[in-house]
Amino acid sequence: MMTKKTGICYLVGAGPGDPGLMTLRGKECIEQADVIVYDYLSNPAFLQWAKPEAEKIYAGKKSRDHTIPQGGINQLLIEKAKEGKIVTRLKGGDPLIFGRGGEEAEELVEAGIPFEIVPGISSSIAGPAYAGIPVTHRDHCTQLTIFTGHEDPTKEESTLDYRQIASTPGTKVMLMGVERLPVVTASLMEEGADPDLPVAMVRWATTGRQRTIVGTLATIAEIAQREDFQAPAVAIFGTVVNCREKLSWFESRPLLGKRVVVTRTRAQASGLSRQLRTLGADVMEIPTIRIEQSQGENLREFASMVVDAHTYDWIIFTSPNAVDFFFSAFYKLRSDAREIGGVRIAAVGPGTAAKLKEYHMATDLMPKKHVAEALAEAFLEEIGSVENTTMLWVRAEGARDVLAESLNKAGAILDEAIAYRTVPETSDPTGAVARFREEGADIITFTSASTLECFLDLGLSIPEECQIASIGPITSAAIRENGYEPAVEADSHDIPGLVDAVVSLVRDSE
User: Fold this and answer.
1) How sure is the predictor about 267, in pLDDT bands with cuts at 50, 70 and 90?
2) What residues are annotated to the active site?
């Protein structure tokens, strides 16, 4: 009788919040996981890397609010691993810097569970860095002390040696101490620390919600209370705080603090989200549609047309998705790229052309205006008459008929290969839908009519104060048909154009 093989548990540091600061090894552990246990400070955006069938368990812990007590988390990791599963435990920052990773590892050892510790970037260094504060600097200090303001609540007395902390030279960084800030600062001053020592606090460091306040040891607690400055935050004590005036870089970005909703498919959202985050936005990914391979008779006809692609004069692509599905099928059915023959290729816009380039295919025709109507006009301008010209249009199920109508009217022999379809996305693994319902947003982006329609099908409404950014005129028309008005429309109907439109919208409203 075979015994079930024990799994493994990865204790992964999820970093301070910016998805770009997750380590490559950490990403691998998420991709391989059968079970993901994540906490309050690990960015839910990381879940997009998980296998669709992976079990996702929220074990968030805030002060006085523990979804699952620590003992329960330990037992959960053990039980899932004993089932033979790969378990990835995501912990904000680094798992061994006040992250209780050591305790979890000890429990795994006692249970005989194999484990691996994957270090992460701690907010103790990332928070100051994103606020323009170097924790060490030759003109200021050569020593760094990290301590926690949040101790085990079962302890009768604090084990923090405030006298030692006050007398130690160099920069001090405190994690998890917002609620006890008045006690901490008062205790340090009682032990001889300079009341005029510069202090900074950084909240939600490295994310679009980052915010920094600056004061002194004597004033920072009052400032934090007045500003309603809450956890999660990191505090920096030392003259290095003065470097912020010159070195602050992240908080000057044009979209900092703006909550921007991205409604593309889960697979496509990352490109737009990454560009917006780079500009400082607090991005909420709410994928409203999912792209699926065409099925049944459509799939059989699509495969047949792909095999015969070399017999056409032109192949027309009106989306990057169409390009992906076409060449995925092509290389399953053909072994040599040259078998596509001398066919010429038309693309509706630069995004589609860029996708073609990934397959080492050049674009022979692209309209100046990146919509289907303009593509038909571009054919007539480029080659004159299209009468009896054979064309294969690779498209989505339910695509608008305007291109087909124009080309058929002009005498083209047009075949339509239905490569894929869009279906509503109803899951909310990252909690972005719930967050949108609760907090709203500053800007919501739509990249197609279907993203808007499926957004509304989720039962979501767009608050009056939320501005709408549209990728192009077709999407804008759909927005208006549903009773809303886009605040801005991209000049270039692609992702870079949409990003530029969002930046312009924010700049013009300031």
Assistant:
1) low
2) 39, 61, 176
